[in-house]
Amino acid sequence: MKTKKEEKKSRREFLKAAGIGIGGVFAATVLQPFTAVLYASKEPEGAGPWYGIAIDIEKCIGCGSCARACKNENDVPREPFYFRSWVEQYTIKNDGEIKVESPNGGIDGFTQSVPDEDIFKSFFVPKMCNHCSQAPCVQVCPVGATFETDDGIVLVDQNYCIGCRYCVQACPYGARYVHPEKNVVDKCTLCYHRLKKGLNPACMDACPTGARIFGDLRDKEGELFKFLKEHTCHVLKSHLNTGSKLFYNSLNQEVR
Amino acid sequence: MKEFDHLYDALSKVDGFIYPNEIELSWSLGIVLYPYITGLVAGAFILASLNRVFNVKALKPTYVISLLTALAFMLVATMPLITHLGKPFRFYEIMITPHLTSAMAIFGFVYIWYLMVVLLLEIWYDYRADMVIWAKESKGLKKIMYKILTLGITDISPKALKLDKKLGYIVTVIGIPSAFLLHGYVGFIFGSVKANPWWSTVMMPVIFLFSAMVSGIALVMLVYMLLSYIRKVKLDMLAVDTIAKFLFYALIIDFVLEGLDQVHRIYEAEESFEIISLLVSGKLNITLLIMQVSLGMLVPMVTLAVLQFYKPKAKIRQIIYLTIGTLVLVGIFFMRWNVVIGGQLFSKSFYGFTSFKLGLIGMEGALMGIFWLIIPFVILGFLLWLFPPWKKSKELESIADSD
Ligand code: SF4
Ligand code: SF4
């Protein structure tokens, strides 16, 4: 049997411990620094590069060189249903109507069908895999064939993919397709095979206006980091919290 | 080029803007059938449990039939899923490389658990003693099969019979949450895809569950009626009326849940609202508004409601039940269709639609689909031949029941 005094003491100690515990949780929650939207999500631990991409919509002229270069480099089927990288044309008319087009993914360039006097605004948006850091496609793959590398690139191991297409459903950006001959999923690899040789992704090299910038988000001196610093950038569908690492400068709200 | 003809055709029918990779639907008839058949399994099993665990005596004549129906459909449930894979021969990877974050990866485990542990055990406990006797009475192949299936446990003393009954009861009790899990998780496969507003709702698992019950109950009702007709025995109208009553309740709950889900969408009117209302009023108006909601749900519900107060003659009731049962089965099929196909018709850009035409041949063609729906009945026929519920010994049962 405990005496009254002892009991009181142990209760006090319990309260103290509980207080420290609760306070600790509280402090941890509140004091945790917020991560800037710059990273859409938290940068993972580790050294080495952590890749991201930026696109300057103001510079894109819709020539489709990037989409063409991508198909050539990566043996993407020629048919107009399969793309690792494509360009969309947005035309907002004076009456507020939004027209979006991407004939053959923009590979052959664009012609504007809306007469000049009706156009409020028109611009091009190149699209590709966002290499999300909280990628829904990685989350759903039942066999782990879709995975994220340490350098932040989302890849598909085509030797493991069972072709269930769950990832195609889960990607909010339409970045994936099923390869008609291989019967497995294919998508942008950021030209991983070139990166490993120290080369740029093919689309980056192909862009005549320098609208595409790619690089290491950890490199605070790098071109990409500087670009993000000097421009106000947004990611697509930020409300879905995919941790996208594809940043757009001058992104209109109409773009989805 | 022939291979891409259907895609060029779809491309010419695109309405508004879709992402270039979205021309072809990733999930087709196979993925419509998978939740449909799994739902029939879960529903039939839950009906069986009503008899056993909740002691609804009137359902006795359909107890074993529900279980065998569940088993027959369970054996086929995965087939449409496997055949739709781009690499069907890699399907076992799901089992050996569990990926904890994927709803689909759980599939193998839930399936094995449900099939191997719950369904097979329950049926085995139910039939073991009968098989011991049948093994003695029959000849040839059947004799050998019964012998093997008893697993050499031939004790049919009252004590053993009572133990069978008790263990069977325990398995059923475990089975109920398993059946809920089985189908709830199938709903989760869709409900957790946040990229797709037509799917992404927490209601999805619950809606799948109750629609599963609706379809499973209707299926057992039809199977039971047809069996009596084929065997030329008198139909136990009390049993059918009771099933119909449960069908009525399940329909009401299902209707309320689906209704709530839609009201919620309309009230919230999120950014996706516009495209979804276009989808419902346009591309899905026949399959959703007419097939699923009107014919598959409202007509059966109202008819069953009337039957609760006013009972016409047995013959007429039979015809009504037959019609309603069929309508419900068709309706739930279209419910799956509208979820799976409907969810892929609009672009994730919310700016347009692609189109879908069901082919006749091929792994995901209509003929294959019909095949997967007929096979379970063939299996059921075989199961009924091997384990005829009407030949079960009444004597053994009364011993097991006695205190
Ligand atoms: S854009 Fe799509 S495919 Fe690329 S990582 Fe994100 S979810 Fe995956
Ligand atoms: S299609 Fe392949 S990569 Fe995509 S989820 Fe299925 S197995 Fe994974």
Which keywords apply here?
heterodimer, A: alpha+beta, three-stranded antiparallel beta sheet, 11 strands, B: mainly alpha, binds iron/sulfur cluster
Q: Alpha-carbon distance between the termini of chain B? A: 74 Å
Q: Which strand order spans the largest sheet of chain A, edge to edge or round the barrel?
A: 9-1-11-10
Briefly note the structural class of the backbone of chain A.
alpha+beta
Low-confidence runs of at least 5 consecutive residues of chain B: none
Secondary-structure element order of chain A, as H and E?
HEHEEEHEEHEEHHEHEE
Most residues in contact, chain pair and counts: A-B, 48 and 45 residues
Q: Which range best describes the helical content of chain B: under 10%, 10-25%, 25-40%, 40-55%, 55-70% or over 70%?
A: over 70%
Tell me the Rg of chain B in angstroms.
23 Å
Radius of gyration of chain A: 24 Å
Per DSSP, the total helix count of chain B is 16
Stretches with pLDDT under 50, minimum 5 residues of chain A: none
The proportion of residues in beta strands of chain A is: 15-25%
Number of strands of chain A: 11
Strand arrangement, major sheet of chain B: 1-2
Average pLDDT for all residues of chain A: 88
How many DSSP H or I helices of chain A? 7
What distance separates the N and C termini of chain A? 70 Å
